[in-house]
Amino acid sequence: xxxxxxxxxxxxxxxxxxxxxxxxxxxxxxxxxxxxxxxxxxxxxxxxxxxxxxxxxxxxxxxxxxxxxxxxxxxxxxxxxxxxx
Length: 85
Hints:
There is one protein chain. This protein is α+β, with helices and mostly antiparallel strands. It contains 2 helices and 4 strands; from the N terminus they run ββββαα. A two-stranded antiparallel sheet has the order 1-2. The longest helix is centred in the C-terminal third of the chain and has 20 residues, at 60-79. It is extended, with a radius of gyration of 18 Å. The protein starts with 6 loop residues before the first strand and ends in a 6-residue tail after the last helix. The mean pLDDT is 83.
């Protein structure tokens, strides 16, 4: 994408455009003041779900649907034809 990611929205009836700054390498999470990477946050969430029974943010069924959509996008791109889900 030329110029990087831009997010367009309507804020209080006025068009706004946000350009996130990923120059530090990605999105960081700050639980309790400690900065961790998105990968570590995802791994901790999964770990807590297994060991402590906490809820996952993304359910396996949701991940399956996203995977099916992505597979359909790639298949459509490869064949040049629409793929129905």
